[in-house]
Design a protein that fits this description.
This protein has 14 helices and 16 strands. It has 387 residues and is α/β, with parallel strands linked by helices. The protein has three domains: 114 residues, Rossmann fold; 186 residues, Rossmann fold, CATH 3.40.50; 75 residues, Alpha-Beta Plaits, CATH 3.30.70.260. The strands form three sheets. A seven-stranded parallel sheet has the order 8-7-6-9-10-11-12, with helices on both faces.
């Protein structure tokens, strides 16, 4: 029986996929896996039984990735599961900024109590909210993953002139891009030419605050900046100065804080990017399927700290081994199996950074408890499971 701890409310569409091999609930003791959305885990004590964490969403800032890697805990996310929900909100954000809709809504609501005067007041006051159309405007998309690609294609279909920048563009994403999307030769070129700029890159030590004073200085006056990725990508002090100087005409963000909320020319959306029924269901389904496939078959897909490693299941006994990515480790593993008279029927080895992962199907009689002890005694082995 596999035990799954639910740290947040998870859509029943995902939970319903668990078979009778699983027990799942909140605060379950000694879990094999954790399903989480936004709950902060950085200060949590990770139980020794824990083998995997699946985040029903793309961002994993709330999960202690380094600590998990040290303990051999695989961390999954669900890239693309909420992409359409975010895409639609980004398009809405562009339209809100272009047409001054947010300010107009607040002003119109303030006319409550004016009675029969409201129609005339609306006609007299609407001129202050004259906006622009997005047709023909230049959109720069920074990051062409699942979300960025969908936004680029949708904006192009709406008549915008779209330029994308992503030095790590995957083949899969490239196939999905409209051929009319231009490739920016550099980030600076995209920033300099765009009327609208939308950010779709992960926040990490290399990208935190990368939209700073130097980058704002490159942008054309009156640009609309949209941030539906992570708040920390944009330096707040530099943003406020860019707004005051007229460089940024609107900042639309799904990650507001107090400083951002009180800043003029900001449209602050309360983190609604993935807040659709469909997104929550898609994320829950993907997270559940990934953690089940790992626990039952050892397969890894969409992990943020382990390599992708998938081997079709056979009728052989399966052993999974995670180890430090050091020379000689495969030799140690295969020698140990040979010493225990186990024949390798099939095997796959993948590495990512400092971690390597192996799925090995073997033939022969196994004393599981004894074999696990022998593996754990090998220097460089992080974890081993016999399935």
């Amino acid at each position: 029986m596999y035990r799954i701890d639910l740290l947040n409310k998870i859509s029943e569409k995902g939970l319903s996929l668990f078979t009778d091999k699983y027990e799942y609930r909140t605060d379950i003791p000694d879990p094999d896996g954790i399903l989480v959305r936004s709950k902060e885990m950085k200060e949590m004590t990770l139980p020794s039984s824990l083998k995997a964490i699946a985040r029903a969403g793309a961002g994993v800032n709330n999960i202690p990735i380094d600590k998990c890697s040290e303990k051999g805990i695989v961390v999954f996310n669900t890239p693309g599961a909420n992409a359409n929900g975010v895409k639609e909100l980004v398009v809405l954000g562009m339209l809100l900024a272009a047409r001054n809709v947010a300010e107009g809504l607040i002003w119109a609501k303030g006319l409550v109590g004016e009675g029969d005067k409201v129609p005339d007041l609306i006609e007299k006051g609407k001129a202050q909210f004259v906006g622009t159309e997005i047709l023909g405007k230049k959109l720069g998309v920074v990051g062409l993953g699942a979300i960025g690609t969908m936004i680029a294609n949708t904006a192009e279909a709406l008549g915008m002139d779209v330029m994308g920048y992503d030095p790590f563009l995957s083949i899969e994403a490239a196939w999905k891009l409209s051929r009319n999307i231009k490739k920016a030769p550099s980030l600076d070129r995209l920033l300099a030419e765009s009327d609208y700029i939308t950010l779709h890159v992960p926040q990490n030590k290399d990208t935190k605050g990368f939209i700073n004073a130097d980058k704002f200085a490159i942008m054309k006056k009156g640009v609309v900046l949209l941030n539906f990725a992570r708040g920390g990508l944009v330096e707040t002090a530099a943003l406020k100065k860019a707004i005051a100087d007229g460089i940024v005409s609107r900042y639309v963000t799904d990650f507001p804080d107090e400083e951002i909320i009180k800043t003029d020319k900001v449209i602050a959306i309360p983190h609604l990017g993935a807040s659709t029924e469909e997104s929550e269901e898609n994320c829950a389904i993907m997270a559940t399927m990934q953690i089940m496939d790992f626990l039952e078959n050892g397969n890894i897909k969409n992990s943020v700290n382990f390599p992708e490693c998938i081997l079709d299941r056979s009728d052989k006994t399966r052993i999974t081994v995670s180890n430090k990515n050091e020379p000689g480790m495969i030799e140690k593993i295969t020698h140990l199996l040979a010493d225990n008279k186990l024949n390798i029927a099939d095997m796959i080895n993948k590495s990512r950074g400092n971690i390597a992962y192996n799925i090995i199907d073997v033939e022969g009689d196994i004393n599981a408890a004894e074999l696990v002890k022998k593996f754990e005694a090998v220097n460089g082995i992080i974890g081993v499971r016999i399935l």
